[in-house]
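#onboarding

Welcome to the new folks! Below is a worked example of what a typical request in this channel looks like: someone posts a single protein sequence, and someone else replies with the predicted structure as tokens. Don't worry about understanding the tokens yet, we'll cover that in week two.

Example request:
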Amino acid sequence: MAKAAKIFGIVLAGLVLLVVIAAVLVQTQWAREKIEAQLSQRLDGRAVEIGNLDIDWGFPLGISVSNVEIANPEWAKHPYMLKLDAMQAEIDVGALLTGNLSLQLLELEQPEIHLARQADGRSNWAALTSEDSSSDNSSPIQPDTIRIQNGRLTYRDAALDAEVTLDIATTDNGPDQRELSIEGQGSVQGKPLQLSLTGEPPSQALASGSPYAVTLDAQLGEIQAHFNGEAKQLPQLDTLQGKLTVSAPDSAELMAFDTPAIDVPAFDFNTQLKRDGQRWALQDMDLKTGESHLTGSLVLERGETPELSVNMQGNRLDLNRWGVMRLLNTEQDSTQSQATGDTQSLQQRAQNLLQPLRRYRGEVDLSLDQLLYGDAALSNIVIKGSLAEQRLQIEQLHAEQGDGAISANGALDLTKDSLSGTVDLTVEGLDLGRALEPLGYPKLGTLDGELHAQLGQNSARLSDTHLRYENPTRDLRIEVDATSTDSGLLLTGEAWRNEVPLQFELDVGALEALFDKQPYPVEGTVTSRDSHLSVNGTITDPLQLEAADLAISLEGPNPANLNPLTGLSLPSLAGYQLRGQLLWENQQLRLQDLRAQWGQSDLSGDVRLDLSGRPMLWANLHSDTLHTSDLKAPDTPTDPDDAQVFSDESLGLDALRDRDAIVRYEADKVIAKDIPLNAVDFKVELDEGVFLADPLKLAIGKGKANVRLRLDVRPPQPTGELHLDITSVNLTPVLREADLPQVAQDSAGTIGGQLDLNFKGHSLGEMAAALDGKLELGMSGGKLDMLAMELLGLDAGEAALAALADDDQVPMNCTYLRFGSTDGIAKLEQFFISTTDSNITGGGTIKLDSERLNLAFEAHAKDISLFSGNSPVELQGTLSNPQASVVTGELAARAVASVVGALVAPPLAILPWLEAGLGEGSGVGCRKALNEFEQDRRD
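Example response:
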């Protein structure tokens, strides 16, 4: 508004001066044209027209001008910059004869001025304001009396999105009671603007050095302002003094031209405003809003080195009510979006942040009882500091949070290209999660300790620094001592995760490089009980863990000991050693050149885990030797529940729903005591909750077993399918390598068969209880003997063997069994053993939900004259504790016979399962037995 008034005065002054000069010379058309030409030249050639020019040659000298028009540039919306219906001026002739221009009266009728500025900064008044004129604060004309009738000034600014119209007039309220009246309306950034200004006679406003009383009422949107005071050196307003009051209802919008508008609460603000040239002062400030009450003063002295002094006190400030948190979140999102590719160091970023302070001076003394932001609160806040000669002195920085507090002091030199100075920080029980949650860091813990930093030219050093961090939600505690060394930073201390302790000693890079985007060196050891980790490599942006390239070496008694620390589900194994290259980048973890050994087993290969979206694991692993005894720790119980074969403990299949995997594993040699394996080769895929092991190849003896396993964990109750083909497995060498040489010599044969199962459930117990499928198994050769009975764990095994055979070691030509299961009830549909003297049959059921056995077996002599004393045998009890008994009595024997069923030979389809194995003890027992059975049936 001051600029508009100044331009208004410049235009009128130029017009008056030229008219006066023309009047003195001569009242002619030539004079009007001369005036028009002079004004047009000043306005870059715009059209200027003066309709009439009349002179009243008397005392005082009277001049009348009418129908004056000055054109706007073509881009302006309004065609005229100035339009004046009439102007009357009375000039003191005596003063004019002495060379001075003294206006006794200046009267304007319907003056209109239309000002405009484009978005690129061009304005229609630029030709009228030069650097010389802008620095001249004196008014070019100072009439004794000014009258304005129906004046209007419009202002359009595309850069500010502002349109304002001012109606200007003077009123005569009696002798020496003339007033200036300005009524305005318009909009700024879409918000309605209204203002009303009243002042003393306008001639006093132009009197040099005289105070001019003015009252202003304005409203922008819902925010209202009132000023009552006086000004000097109008229209520049270089001197201003008075009382300013600003108020707003709840949820009014406070404009911010470079950022989104802020919603403010209802407030009342009062202050004594004083301006003296470049110095602005707000004294006796009083701000009330809700429960908040702030008082103090603020002084800003503009210039080449601006100086700001702030002294404020308050009981409470709620940043949420002022919309500051929303503004900070907007700026944070903008900063993060611009951070891509930013490789500045911490010092460079701090340097850039503090760079604007170099050209300022000032002092701050702020105290606040409570500060609210987001869901967080700080109390007893004190900020005292000064800035002078490019040196920032932090005398006191203090804030409390419940029982916690943070205090800091120090000094920073801003004169150099990089920061230098000292910072001392003390933290007592500060809950970082509560303090920083509104800024987007909700899961942090509590911090205690001291930090002492000394900043130098491109360097930062720590001394006597001890910090303690505790995060109960993650059951994590860390105590660290940090000391700068010639090579970087030495970190030593202890940590606890899930109450498991660890100790660390790490040599890392320099403190000033901690926030660089360049690789940050790390070397050291971490020890937890008997487990030891060594690392050597680099981490990029350690606080954000953007990338890592580390050579690692890990050893310990059991990987499962690390589960409480890592949160992983590592298996329980024998003592292990592991080394490899650990890489992390773009949310992808790689373990390359893996070399591991535990017990007598080894493992090598590469592992890759992608965490950028749904977790995806790739692994290609190989073992030269795998001892199955190494798959569990030496002190692991072999069977947590001896009374149950199929455990009810959950298999944890739900964990397969939210991750995918492709794993390939191959073991050249497998040494197993309980499981007769020689080698393993399998590929496992997990895709969207479907687990598929295909192929899964097992080398057993000189035979093989092919497995296909499919699990679907997407339904609430997982389902699965299992198919197993066993072909020509010679048990003799297998059992011999499995440390069962006696069984291998006395009882082993060649086996083969098929298994097809469908199941559902979360545990082996649930799966067995609802099992559907079949099992067919054949064996050629072997011996039925007492040692095998003992191996099976059968009580009364000697009596059972005697009931089925004449000797404690009976050669078997062929063995065949077939189970069919429906809803967890497995029925022994066919059982057949062919020995030299007899055929043995069997039947019955196994209830898999309760694991109860109800099986029976009976021998049939091939020659009744040679063998007639056999009795049936029952097998009852549970799978974990089978009980064998000999059935006596005719009725009982008949009942068993009905269970055993008729004597039926095995199908010929079993022969390919057995005859491909031509190794030790393979024989041709089943083919011979089937031929004999067929021949006996014909006879």
